User: Fold this.
Amino acid sequence: MPSASSSSSSGAPASAHVPPQQDAAGTAPGSPEGSTAPAATAVLEPAARTEAPLVLDTEPPRTLGFRDHFALWMNLGVSLIGFTTAATVLGAKGSELSLAAAVTAIVAGTAVGTAMLGVAALIGARTGAPAMANLRGLFGTRLSYVPTVLNIVQCIGWGVYELLTIALGAQTVVGTEGYRWVFVVLAGAVTTALTIWPLGAIAVLRRFVAVAVAVAMVYFTVQLGRHGVPDPGAGNWHGFLRATDAMIAVSISFVPLAADYTRHSRTPRAAFWGSFSGYTMAQVWCYVLGLMALLQADGDPARIFDSFLGVWAGWLFLLVLVLRETDQSFANVYSTAMSIHNLLPRVDRRVLTGGIGVLITVLALQITEFTDSYYAFLGLIGSVFVPMFAVLAVDYFLGAGRRGWDLSADAPSRWLMLLPWALGFAAYQLIAPTAVAGWWTDLWTSAQEALHFTPQEWTSASLFGFLVPALATWALTPLTRGRGAEAR
Assistant:
């Protein structure tokens, strides 16, 4: 596959910058009013248009259309983790949601969370900048390093987890508890290769993998449906909002990654609708299928793959899903590199993705399983990005972003934008303290007591963690809009 031209691999100018962006109305700076042409149209040689730039300050090729985005996000919406975590929606044994309530929670939570994902995707398509580089416009370059580092830790953690999941899935298909290291190394090698040619990988997903995944999903849906689906919680809707909140959180987990791919979109419309429709359809299907398999395994998540292997030729179709799980690890490794580009804009992305691929493979070889405290830590980082996205969206469409963000390497710090972000994080933790450590949980429990606040069933941490900073950012708009204009 052809690589980017030599102009892309050369060192950045003395003042590194990201490609020019569109304003919030979708018009490129300097374009005639009403123009819908992409703001960051790449002035590159034809051969360079086939792959992503190697350094941050190079114009991204705009090669991805609706079908590309749909296929990418459809594949990301289906995951082995999605099957096994269907238990978080169903609820504890003995107090399960009804099947109708669980499916409704999956649909509603996914739609809300994916709408946020779609907006993040749209912003990336308009600016032409990776996700963390867009935060230069929101916080200023130096302040953007804080969420960037958190996202790097999050992506590496999930990258390692994906390799472990792939290895476990492969062992299940083969029927062995050994050779784990072989499967980890193979998965790491495939993941790294995909990240070297990211746009080529997306093309393969669209042309081949998406079809294979759809066939496997249809097959399992029909086969499991033939066996019937028990409904142990018939009539029970208690815990519905908790389940919906869990689905919102799953969808939002991709928000800090979305722009890394949609910056290559031909139009903002294709980025939004491709990501929204592809991911919504796939995640709903994945979790509903996971529910079916879980209920047929008597609600035991550890036996969920037995349901898939229990149907005729189930091993073959499960193998398809195991192999395509590498797109999850691909997304985490590639987005880690894009995040590092916000810190080190002149480093060749192939060097970054190659090094990160080796790192997560080595870590996966050393780690046999994640502890509850590490899951909680990843959840804590996730609670950072829900309110941050709210601030991002409101400021981009209603605040300083309306006149165009400053995404340059010397974008001035916007300290005031930390306030609504902090308020949103506090609201999230006040409603649902992350069990990362005893002292952390005690801190927020004490805050609840001091405020005479008791979380209710209807108090969704994700929704309130979004609404509080969104309203706070909107209230600060008269102060931030003018400063944003001066900052450009």
Remarks:
- The mean pLDDT is 85.
- The radius of gyration is 22 Å.
